[in-house]
Design a protein that fits this description.
Blueprint: H1 7-13, E1 16-19, H2 33-38, E2 43-47, H3 59-64, E3 68-73, H4 86-92, H5 98-101, E4 102-104, H6 113-132
Length: 141
C-alpha cells in the first residue's frame, strides 16, 4: 500500500471514495464533476465529512453515465436541502437512476438513546483518564 501523491491520482484508483475531512477553503467543492469523471466506472462516493466538500449537483450526471454506481451521503451543503437542489430532484424522481442508487441520511443519523448514553460514558471516561494522567484513546491532534 502506498499514499497517493494527489487527489487526481487517488480518484483514478479509488472504487470507493470516502471523505473524512474538515470543511476549509481548500476542501470546499473539492469533489465535483471533474474529480468524479476520474473515478473508475461504477465507483461509489461516500461523504460523512461536510456537505460543501462535494458539489452534489454533479452526482446525478455521474450516476446517469455510470461513473458512479451509487453515493452515500450523511451530509449535504444545505440542511435541510432546497426542493430545487439537483441531487434532491433526481433522488426523488423514480425514473432517475439516483432514486435507487443514492442514500441520504440526516446528519444526526447516529442518534439513538443508546448512542446518547455511550457518548456521555465515553466522554466521562476520557476526562477521568486525562485527570489521572492516563493515555486517552482516540486523540487526534
Amino acid at each position: 500500500m502506498r499514499r497517493a501523491e494527489s487527489l487526481e491520482e487517488l480518484a483514478r484508483e479509488a472504487f470507493v471514495l470516502s471523505l473524512h475531512c474538515p470543511l476549509t477553503g481548500e476542501t470546499r467543492g473539492m469533489i465535483g464533476a471533474e474529480t468524479l469523471a476520474l473515478l473508475p466506472p461504477r465507483s461509489y462516493l461516500v461523504n460523512t465529512a461536510r456537505g460543501a466538500v462535494v458539489d452534489t449537483a454533479a452526482i446525478p450526471a455521474a450516476i446517469e453515465t455510470g461513473r458512479l454506481a451509487g453515493a452515500g451521503l450523511d451530509v449535504l451543503p444545505d440542511e435541510p436541502p432546497r426542493d430545487d437542489d439537483p441531487l434532491i430532484r433526481a433522488w426523488r424522481d423514480p425514473a432517475h437512476p439516483a432514486h435507487e442508487r443514492v442514500l441520504i441520511t440526516p446528519h444526526a443519523a447516529f442518534y439513538s438513546e443508546e448512542g446518547r448514553v455511550e457518548m456521555r460514558t465515553k466522554a466521562a471516561l476520557a476526562c477521568r483518564r486525562a485527570v489521572l494522567g492516563e493515555p486517552i484513546p482516540n486523540v487526534v491532534n
